[in-house]
């Protein structure tokens, strides 16, 4: 007896993150759930995120500004990240280290802006 299998594609939502450069050029890319915003930038050759420490929160070279309307949707900043941001170039109240923002399906549409330079 021949069995027929019906393959039903599993709909997977891959969040889209928009990286905006300091001169307002936008790059919107898909970043799989579980990766960080920094990893998404590196995998997609986004300029402006250096990530010298590879995401171990030992530098501030993945510093981004999170769009104001997204601040309450991402995980709260921890003291260690805040301390590291003190070393970032021109930190603001919406500054975050992109290595500390873990992508979830709820972050589909997230927008981050890179500073004019990383420290």
Summarize the structure in words.
The protein contains two helices and five strands, in the order ββαβαββ. The protein is of the alpha+beta class and 119 residues long. A five-stranded mixed sheet has the order 2-1-5-3-4. It has one domain (16-113): Ubiquitin-like (UB roll) (Roll). It is globular. The chain has helices at 37-43, 79-85, and strands spanning 16-20, 26-30, 63-66, 95-97, 111-113. Helix content is 12%, strand content 17%. The chain starts with 15 loop residues before the first strand and ends in a 6-residue tail after the last strand. The longest helix is centred in the middle third of the chain and has 7 residues, at 37-43.
In short:
The protein is of the alpha+beta class and 119 residues long. The chain has helices at 37-43, 79-85, and strands at residues 16-20, 26-30, 63-66, 95-97, 111-113.
Cα-atom Rg, whole angstroms?
A: 17 Å
Q: What's the CATH architecture name?
A: Roll
- Total tally of structural domains: 1
Q: Numbering strands along the chain, what is their spatial order in the largest sheet?
A: 2-1-5-3-4
- Average pLDDT over all residues: 93
Q: Quote the beta fraction.
A: 15-25%
Provide the low-confidence segments as ranges.
Answer: none
Globally, the shape reads globular
- Class, according to the CATH hierarchy? Alpha Beta
The run of helices and strands is: EEHEHEE
Helix content: 10-25%
Extended strand count: 5
CATH homologous superfamily - what is it?
Answer: Beta-grasp domain
CATH topology: Ubiquitin-like (UB roll)
Task: Describe the sheet with the most strands.
Answer: 5 strands, mixed
Helix/strand class = alpha+beta
DSSP helix count? 2
User: Cα distance, first to last residue?
Assistant: 67 Å
């Amino acid at each position: 007896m021949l069995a027929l299998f019906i393959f039903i594609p599993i709909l997977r939502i891959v969040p889209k993150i928009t990286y905006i450069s300091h001169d307002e050029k936008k790059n919107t890319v898909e970043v799989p759930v579980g990766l960080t915003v920094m990893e998404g930038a590196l995998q997609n050759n986004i300029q402006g995120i250096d990530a010298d420490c590879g995401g171990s929160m030992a530098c501030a070279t993945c510093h981004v500004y999170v769009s104001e309307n997204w601040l309450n949707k991402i995980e709260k900043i921890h003291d260690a990240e805040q301390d590291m941001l003190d070393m970032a170039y021109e930190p603001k109240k919406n500054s975050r280290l992109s290595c500390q923002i873990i992508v979830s399906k709820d972050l589909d549409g997230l927008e981050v802006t890179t500073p004019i330079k990383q420290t």
